[in-house]
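Suppose you are handed only two things: the residues of a chain and a line of SMILES describing zinc ion. What would the bound structure be? This form records exactly that question and the answer produced for it, so the two can be stored side by side and reused later without any lookup.

QUESTION INPUTS
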Amino acid sequence: MTQIANDYNRILSKAWAEAPREGIHNVWRQDAVKALKALFKREFPNRRWPYEVKFTSGNRYTWVRYHVLSINCDRGWEHLVHDWSHWLNQMHGRKPHCEEHLRLERQCAQFVIGRGWVKTEAAPVPVQEKTDKVVEHYKRLLSNKAATEKRLFKHRSALDRAEKRLKTLDRDIRAYYKKYAERLA
Ligand SMILES: [Zn+2]
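ANSWER OUTPUT
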């Protein structure tokens, strides 16, 4: 491990040691959003918040793509702040894990801890995930029905048009035949 990487881990471990230990992997979604917005504001006081916020999970990073910020609360505060400091640091046009990045990340950690966002009170289970399957299934049924009705309507109109056209053609054929009966006989 290089010197800077050594320092990096040591300095950040020290910073995070100030937070309640059981809170590190207990990220409240609402606090995560507040924290990332506040840290952004801290770095870029004159910029408006530009991102749409979404939540992600598993091993994914907290990162921005096409103006959508995906926040992963599952990996705990250290990862969340580390990932976000990468983004902020990159926005400053600096290299990852440079000294300024380290300083920035430590300040971010201290800021988050200072605001009391690392807390031991269990994070509420996101309501969405629990009801999602049922709600999503119901929504799917409804939209399926709507699509089917639309298709039926389309086919019905096509059928109506075809029937009308057929009548017109029959009439025309009869008239034409009548007119040229001798030649067509
Ligand atoms: Zn990194």
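WHAT STANDS OUT: The mean pLDDT is 93. Helices lie at 3-16, 29-43, 76-91, 99-114, 127-179, 181-184.
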